[in-house]
Amino acid sequence: MDRSRIEQYASGGAKLVQAYWGLSHEQLMAKPSDGSWSLHQIAIHLNDSDLIGSDRMKRIACMHLPLLVGYDETGFANLPGSEKLPTFTALDLFQKNRQMTATILRSLPDSAFERCGIHTESGKVSLAEMLEKYIHHLEHHLVFVARKRIPLAGLPDQPIAPA
Fold this sequence. Notes:
Distance between the termini: 35 Å
Low-confidence stretches: 156-163
Strand content: 5-15%
Structural class: mainly alpha
CATH architecture: Up-down Bundle
Mean pLDDT: 93
Number of strands: 3
Number of helices: 6
Order of helices and strands: HHHEHHEEH
Oligomer: single chain
Radius of gyration: 17 Å
CATH class: Mainly Alpha
């Protein structure tokens, strides 16, 4: 087990907060003309996904072949009230959850990363694979966040500082 991967996972929270730094409410909520998610929706999605990922990793670490249930990310993103959730609170929660989960992961023996769970959509998955999945998931979305910031540069610039 390459333990530096745990540190990369843990540092993802700060990367995400930095990616959103200085964005105004208008910029966060702006819907791209291509129909893709707003920056706000991406932040809420990443928080939802990471909370689920943390639960999955802990289940694998302490249970014998736990069932890891898939979820409808679009359904979650479209839940009534989602647009009212505070973006920077979600980013803060994401960062804190990563730190807490990383503390547990650092405490596990290397052999724990070979333990597996059964995902309802993708089958058998190890803790090491799950860790990689969530590292990649964030990196994948950070690219989208960076791309979406460019056309938003002309919107009103009244930055919202993280809480």
